[in-house]
Amino acid sequence: MQRADEILTLPPPSLKRRARWAVERALYLSGAASVYARAAGGGAIILMYHSVADAPHARFVDPAWHMTPARFEAQLRWLKANRTLISMGALIDALGRGETPAPGTVVLTFDDGYLDNLTVAAPLLARYEAPATIYLATGYVEAGESQWVDRLYNLFRSRQRQALAVASKRYDLSVAAERLRAFLELSGVFITSTRAERADLLAKIEGQLAPAERTPRLTLRWADAKALAERFGNIDLGVHTVDHLDMSRCGLETARQQLVDARDQIKAHTGRDAQHFSFPYSRNTPETRDLVRALGYRSATGPSDRFLVRPGTDPYDLPRIDPRTDPTLLRFWTSGAYPGLPQALLRRA
User: Fold this and answer.
1) Element (H or E) spanning 301, and its range?
2) Which residues pair with 335 in a beta bridge?
3) Comparing C-alpha atoms, which of 215, 169, 249 is closest to residue 60?
4) 21-42 pLDDT, tens digit each
5) 42 phi and psi, to 5 degrees?
6) In percent, how much of the chain has pLDDT > 70?
7) 205 near 149, Cβ under 8 Å?
8) b/e burial code for range 195-215 (CB count within 10 A of at least 16 → b)
9) d(Cα 188, Cα 58) in Å, to the nearest integer?
């Protein structure tokens, strides 16, 4: 069985990205970010979390989508003391009134519906009086089924065999570069597959790799989602489709069914009216954005890179930032100076 730290599920950051991060840290530490943010006129930043599992489940979650509870609490503590935390609903209300959120306004969101959102994140959010939206992939909640990415990760992590053949491709997983290539290429296949196709492919991979450990349940069940709704008034439940499908490829009729069924399921099982949507994999099209709007959802998160949310931002293509980073970058990204200040400097260069 392989150590978890031997499994890379994302390529290392490029030299260009590391250089950009160094500049952004310097802008924050120099005080330039706070000066720029005051002059820029405000706007909100939306942060995107997934799992904050603690032991014993943490090792089963793909590290690309996991944050330790200690790091999450440290972020919450700092954000509560230094930023203005508001709900997604409050942000959409403000945009509807034509109001620009003050610099340092932050919205917290969670994708997928991990069990640790109830057991770890929710109590911490309540402690710091922080609102958040948790987007549920309701088919996975219905089945108590862990996300395919974590199941694939664990097949790689606990594999007892090194040879893998999928379709016409063969991989030697004992070689780090081959392992990363295999994981990324297979992930691309899973993203564009149906749940049934994913289950079939996972079974084929499992048969070849003979993992030493099975993935435990990492996902909420409906009783857990109901507990979130009843015990934590600061948490909204949103929709992440039924089957965590790529909405840019599944067809409009399937997309409609996913949007309608997921919302109905949340209402039936928790009593909550889900008003906000998150596009899986941040993939959408103008047609799917229009569909979300037509079905009465108030917002949707998507792939936009215009990270500062203010009047004029499309509420059905809201940008988000992954906060799994060092404290200085998080402080810069939520200061109100991002991305405007780096972009202004590049224009002058």
Assistant:
1) strand 299-301
2) none
3) 215
4) 999 999 999 999 999 999 989 9
5) 100, 180
6) 97
7) no
8) beebeebbeebbebbebeeeb
9) 24
Answer for the pair 300, 315: CB distance below 8 angstroms, yes or no.
yes
Bond from prior residue into 69 cis (ω within 30 degrees of 0) = no
Residue 70, token pair as written in the block: 């200690």
Max Cα separation, the chain? 59
Give strand pairing partners of 132: 108, 235
Q: Is the pLDDT of residue 44 over 70?
A: yes
> pLDDT tier at 185 (50, 70, 90 boundaries)?
very high
| Beta bridge partner(s), residue 165 | 170
Q: For the whole model, what pTM was predicted?
A: 0.95
Question: 142: burial class by Cβ within 10 Å (0-12, 13-18, 19+)?
Answer: middle
Residue pLDDT, tens place only, 135-176: 999 999 999 999 999 999 999 999 999 999 998 899 999 999
Give the pair of three-digit tokens for residue 9.
């599920």
| pLDDT average, residue stretch 234-258 | 97
- Interstrand relation of 105-112 and 84-85 (parallel, antiparallel or unpaired): parallel
Cis peptide before 311 (omega within 30 of 0): no
d(CA 46, CA 301): 9
- Cis-peptide, bond into residue 56, ω within 30° of zero: yes
Q: What does each C-alpha distance from 203 to 121, 196, 198, 206 come to in angstroms?
A: 31, 11, 9, 5
